[in-house]
Amino acid sequence: MGPEQGRSEARARAGAARSQERATAGSAEQAGDQPRRALVTGATGYVGGTLVGELLRRGWAVRTLSRSRGKAESMPWAEAIVAQGQRAGAGEVEVCEGDASEFDDVAAAMEGTSAAWYLLHSMGSAADLMAEETAMARTFARAAETAGIDRIVYLAGLHPDDEELSEHLASRTAVGRILLDCAVPTAVLQAGVVLGDGSASFTMLRSLSERLPGAIGPRWIRNRITPIAVRDAMFYLASAAELPAEVNRAFDIGGPDTLEYAQMMQEYAKAVGLLPRLVLTAPVTTPGLAAHWIGLITPVRSGMARHLIGSLLNTTVVKERDLEGLVGTPPGGNLTFREAVRAAVEDLDTRRWSRVLGVSAAAAGTTAGLSGLLAAAVRRSAGIRTPIAGTGRLGGGAVRAVADAGSAGVAALVVADSLEEGDSRGARGAAAAFAAAGLGRIIGRAAAAAGSPAVRTAGIGLSAVCDAVLGRRAYASAPERAAVAAGATALSIAEEGWGGTAPR
User: 20 to 30 Å CA-CA from 371: which of 3, 61, 183, 416?
Assistant: First the structure.
């Protein structure tokens, strides 16, 4: 008897035992006394948290495994959480605190459940991503076998069969194989980019599409992808628990459209009414460099961006739709890409970036204009004809314009991201620092024209201090932004100088 046959017979025996248990408790379940009980791991993440809401709507009693009960209590379904130690009923959530890498914690959380959703993916910087993920998957599989649950559901990534996989996709595929090889019937659902407000993949796509009128991207932006609306992904994830016990396999899930990533950016712009986006490819751009660029431009940190890029380095298209034949499709069918985008941005401000950037650019232009006019007026009134000493050291207005544009761009990014997160106080702080730095530049340039080195130094000092405040806020949002802010400050100081007066 081969290993696969042995595993199949083990699953059959376990299924028969579970059927007998369900028959014994059948009358109570029909009376509503014992609702179906689910374990959801990764419940404080976007996909897991959204799935909990879907299962609650379907009448499941949900148990989550989280390291922090406090984080679970911040989720949209927090009102459904029962008191600690209390057993959840239909439409309720009980939070089990523990570590998904520890067998005892997982086994305790698994006890008494009929289905478990494995939605854990490492997004950290583990030295060996494959080893970390597969070890955690083996722990989960062993706990599921010990608990004798009916079904495991795992969300993996779409991947090609004839390409070398990125580390990210390879580890997720290996996890799927581990779960499929255990004695518990498993459904591995393989999806591409999930389109929904809160999805890191969607946040990256949205931010790149809204913030860049055009882009020159790496070759992977020409890879084909079958994205899926979060509504549809939740339907298939929840419905997979209803599969017959003999079903133990992977399924592809996705929407009706397959597009290149570059086309997704362009179609996003069309869906929300933005101007057309021009997207070109560069011959050489490493994933690491691309991750830093994404960290600079979008709210997605470069570390997370590396993992997201890892899922885009291969062609990720739907090759079969067998699950739809077994569980059906969502009401009205799978959403198209444009429908999914419009549903995702329904409560979002897709024009915020253009407004914030416009205000920042106008402020930078006003600073340059006012300082120039004021300096000219002061020099005329004083009868000064020669250039201002100590200025123009690096090329005059061009370098000054680059420095001002860098500061304005960083300020716009920090303010826009703060507003996206609902942090109006942080947005006001960044805007105030940028405005005060501009005021310092106006004072410094006017003082230089008036021949007042002390005032000039004070103005440039005010500007440098405020730039430092903005830089600190920029670092909190992304180190790449802090680097740009520091470069802009250095250019500005070098160009303005710290002393010197205008000779008469």
Answer: 416
Q: Which of 72, 190, 55, 171 is nearest to 115 (CA)?
A: 55
- Give how far the C-alpha of residue 9 lies from the chain's centroid of Cα atoms, to the nearest Å: 41
Report the distance separating Cα 271 and Cα 495, nearest Å.
44
Among 199, 156, 211, which Cα is nearest to 180's?
Answer: 156
DSSP 81: B
Q: Give me the numbers of helices (H) and strands (E) for the chain, helices first please.
A: 19, 13
**Angstrom distances, CA of residue 451 to CA of 112, 289, 457:** 81, 46, 11
On the CB side of 420, CA atoms within 13 Å amount to 21
User: Model confidence over 161-208: pLDDT tens digits?
Assistant: 888 888 888 999 999 999 999 999 999 999 999 999 999 999 999 999
Q: Give the three-state DSSP class for 354.
A: helix
Report the interhelical angle of 352-382 vs 397-420 (nearest 10°).
Answer: 150
* 3-class DSSP string for 263-329: HHHHHHHHHHCCCCCEEEECCCCCHHHHHHHHHHHCCCCHHHHHHHHHCCCCCECCCCCHHHHHHCC
pTM: 0.86
Q: State whether residue 154 is helix, strand or coil.
A: strand
Torsion angle of alpha carbons 345, 190, 290, 128, nearest 10°?
130
Q: pLDDT averaged over the chain?
A: 86
* pLDDT tens per residue across span 270-324: 999 999 999 988 876 788 889 999 999 999 999 999 889 988 988 999 999 999 9
